[in-house]
Design goal:
This protein is mainly alpha-helical. 91% of the residues lie in helices and 0% in strands.
């Protein structure tokens, strides 16, 4: 039973990571679109309520 619990925990971690990456990808697309259409003010408005962790992931995504 312990192996199943470990597998379940690992699977949950992978799923959570994939879900977070999907959110980051969506945020990156939205920020790029805001920059293209509305400039700096649109980007500032979009990112002002993001957490530091979200902004760090977004920065890493945009640097790739």
């Amino acid at each position: 039973m312990r192996s199943l619990d470990e597998f379940s925990a690992a699977l949950g971690s992978v799923i959570a990571g994939a879900a977070q990456q999907a959110v980051t990808n969506t945020q990156a697309r939205a920020v790029v679109q805001a920059a293209a259409t509305g400039g700096e003010d649109a980007v500032r408005t979009m990112t002002e309520n993001m957490s530091t962790a979200d902004l760090q992931r977004l920065k890493a995504q945009l640097e790739r």
